[in-house]
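Researcher: Structure prediction, please.
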Amino acid sequence: MRPPLLLLGTLFIATTATPALAKDEARVTVAVTGGSLGVGPEVAYRATKKIGLRGNATFLSFSQSFGSNDLDYDGKVKLRSGGVMVDIYPFDGGFRISAGGRSNGNKGRVVATPNGPVTINGTIYTPAQVGTLSGKAGPKNFAPMLTVGYGGGIRPGLAFGVDAGAMFQGTVRLHDFTASNAMIRPQDIEAERRDLQDDIDGYKVYPVLQFSLGYRF
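Model: Predicted structure follows.
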């Protein structure tokens, strides 16, 4: 069963097995969410006191400089993802345990243009020989996610939420790693790519910390 269908199936089973909300209790929350996943719109539906369904889409772009071996890189990251979470409220209040998944379109690009001699895989190259090194990086398209947090009560009005957990995105692959000049040995370019890949292999689990502010009705 595909993950979205599994989430909907879980929601259906839970809604038929738990008490419904009273007429004066709010079901829908429309909010803006922001955090490590990015910033974007969020909509939540509280089906019963114990279970709800929540979806959002998040976006953010930023740059980060870093060093690897003898090279200084400029990294650019674009966070683009959207997903659905099943929220379990074990105590009928605001505390929730959530599981779901995201369509993960996050991607990055790295660029290095040396202005002095650099050593790549044991070989010294001049800036003219290197030109510009560049590559792209990205994870798999789907990532499961697990969080715990607080979604507020069930009364109409302003709503605040916070969730912390992890997105299990797997290996972030560095690909299309090339040099603008053809004066670097291919094996040296590949060695540099492998070193960069080793640097990003620690991001298989992406930390999640999101805040939301909206209105419940």
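Model: Residues 3-216 form a domain with the Porin fold (CATH 2.40.160.170).
Researcher: Thanks, that helps.
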